[in-house]
Amino acid sequence: MGRPTTEDAVRLTSHILKSARELFFEHGFDGASADMIAEQARISKRTLYARFGSKARVFEAVILDEIDTQLRALEPSGSDEPEIGSRLRVIADRLLEWLLTPRIASMERVVIAQAVRFPALAANIHDFGYQRAVQWVASILAHANARGELSLADPLFAAEQFVTLVVVAPMRRAALGLSPPAYDEAARDRIARGIDLFLDGCRPRQGDGCRT
């Protein structure tokens, strides 16, 4: 049959990751064995190890692929919203409609459970996901700062605080089972109040501006 083409290799990798993703999210890292992944993907365990090297590498690839796929689909290309609060609400809605779901809550639990065992994975997730979201917000804040809507000494630092308050906190509560993993009306209202609170501390005032 000859050697597989590049397209064949990409399709096989995507198929394996899709199969492994469901098992990891349902059973956790320890509960999903290499045998189970190979069986789910309808490949041999030898093929699995030849492509990824270890179950840990499969796990890392699954998580990073999930993050990359979703963030590329959600990445803002600009907004027609003229007001800073509306622009921040758009990006918060995009992220939380993805993150506040049972699927991502399950992923977050698995990642938290394995963070100590795989510190490099935790660092990659931070850089690959969190920092990308921070950069989106920082560009919005910097633009508003330049127009005088906000008074920020450091828009990047302010963006980190925004993402932690508005995005990371509700995602973590859902993963811990403290709130439902759903972006419902209650969650939307909570996020709207969080955005108002954030902006209230960053708008220009008489005297010194916000030092965030």
UniProtKB/TrEMBL annotation:
Keywords of the record: DNA-binding, Plasmid, Transcription, Transcription regulation
DNA-binding region listed in the record: 33-52
GO molecular function list: DNA-binding transcription factor activity; transcription cis-regulatory region binding
Species: Sphingobium cloacae
Keyword tRNA processing: no
Matching PROSITE patterns: HTH_TETR_1, HTH_TETR_2
Domain called HTH tetR-type: residue spans: 10-70
Lineage: Bacteria, Pseudomonadati, Pseudomonadota, Alphaproteobacteria, Sphingomonadales
Protein name: TetR family transcriptional regulator
Residues annotated as signal peptide: none
InterPro entries: DNA-bd_HTH_TetR-type_CS, Homeodomain-like_sf, HTH-type_TetR-like_transc_reg, HTH_TetR, Tet_transcr_reg_TetR-rel_C_sf, TetR_C_Proteobacteria
